Structure formats: structure tokens, C-alpha cells
Amino acid sequence: MYKRADQYDGPVTAEIAGHVKEILRLLGEDPSREGLVKTPERVAKSLQYLTKGYEEDGIAIVKSAMFDEQYQQMVLVKDIELYSTCEHHMLPFVGKCHVAYIPDGKITGLSKIARVVETYARRLQVQERLTVQIRDCIDEALKPLGVAVVIEASHSCMQLRGVEKSNSVTTTSAFSGVFLSDARTRNEFLNLIRR
């Protein structure tokens, strides 16, 4: 289910590599130059790895390790490393994601929360949509009392081109259930992720 970049081979890889070779030519490079001969195939495999989330189902991941449990306090997994690709410029954005939920009879394995983040991050994305997709996945799979997601990320499309603001960080949040309706619960989550 989880492939390494070097495990992508076949007709899709070859087709993407052909397009990359043409892009190199259009940029003024010689794709037959020694340093670039294998670049099209490497880029093709890399792009497939960076977008492997399209082949994965976040809800199925959560449900693969779902357990009955009467715990009704906050479950928080914070500082989950996040690597994604901006759909506007196909440049990376990286950061961390904090996810909390309050169970209502069902919990999931903690690693499944990180896998959900990985699944949706490994697609062409905007940070706003990514935040909501993670929240909605956990909401739908577990039917908890509430879900909270905060992402803090640096976007290379802002740092390397355009406005070139290398120290900027974008923060997005998405809440449901008690995290929306109860300020105390929401503030507890926000205080916990600041520590």
C-alpha cells in the first residue's frame, strides 16, 4: 500500500518521464546530457511518490484500527510532520499538523491519525482544503464528539518565487462538534498545541 519512490515503474512512469524530457528541452537544456539522462525518470517517480495519496483512502485507514472505548476526553496527536505539494506551482510546502478528537464510543490507533495526514498531504493541495479534508475524514470515520485540526506550514512558492518571504508561516484551522460549540474545549486544544 505504501510505496517508496523507487517502486514506481511502468507505463505511467514512462509517460510522465517523456513529458519531463520535453520540459527540459523547452527550458533550454539538453536532456541527453550526462547529468540529465536519468532525470526524467527520477522526476516521474518522485512526482508519483509525492502524490501517492490519491491511491489511499483516509477513512479506510482510520477504520482499519478502530476500537470500542468509552473514553470521552481529548485525544491529541501533535507535531505530525507534513510534506505536501502546492497545486498552484507544484512546489513543496512543509510544516506540522495537530489533530485532536473527542471520542464517542470509538477510538483509532494513534498512527492512523498520522497516516490520514500523510494521505491527504500527498496530493496536489492547498493548505486550506488539506485542513478540512483531515477534519472531515476523522469526523466521518469515527463519528466523535468533535475534531480539531491546525496546520502550520511554510510554502516554498512564497519563499522561492513571487514575494520571496522566506520566514512566512501559514496557519489554518478546522473544527467540528464540541470544538466549535464549546470555547473551553477549543481553548484547551489551542493551549496544548502551543506548549
Describe this protein's structure.
The chain is α+β, with helices and mostly antiparallel strands and 195 residues long. It is 42% helix and 26% strand. It contains eight helices and seven strands. It has helices spanning 11-26, 39-50, 58-63, 110-121, 127-142, 156-159, 178-181, 183-194; strands at 66-69, 75-86, 92-102, 105-108, 124-125, 146-155, 170-177. Strand 2 (75-86) and strand 3 form a beta hairpin. The longest helix is centred in the first third of the chain and has 16 residues, at 11-26. The protein is elongated. The model has no long low-confidence stretch (mean pLDDT 94).
In short:
With 195 residues, this protein is α+β, with helices and mostly antiparallel strands. It has helices spanning 11-26, 39-50, 58-63, 110-121, 127-142, 156-159, 178-181, 183-194, and strands at 66-69, 75-86, 92-102, 105-108, 124-125, 146-155, 170-177.
SSE inventory with pairings:
Elements: H1 11-26, H2 39-50, H3 58-63, E1 66-69, E2 75-86, E3 92-102, E4 105-108, H4 110-121, E5 124-125, H5 127-142, E6 146-155, H6 156-159, E7 170-177, H7 178-181, H8 183-194
Parallel strand pairs: 2-5
Antiparallel strand pairs: 1-4, 2-3, 3-6, 6-7
Helix pairs in contact: 1-2, 4-5
**What is the average per-residue confidence, as pLDDT, rounded to a whole number?**
94
Unreliable stretches covering 5 or more consecutive residues: none
* Global structural class: alpha+beta
The biggest beta sheet is recorded as: 5 strands, mixed
Radius of gyration: 20 Å
N-C termini distance:
35 Å
The count of DSSP E runs of length 2 or more, i.e. the number of strands, is 7
As a percent range, the share of strand residues is 25-35%
* Count of runs of 4 or more consecutive helical residues: 8
Proportion of helical residues: 40-55%
Q: List the strand order in the largest sheet.
A: 5-2-3-6-7
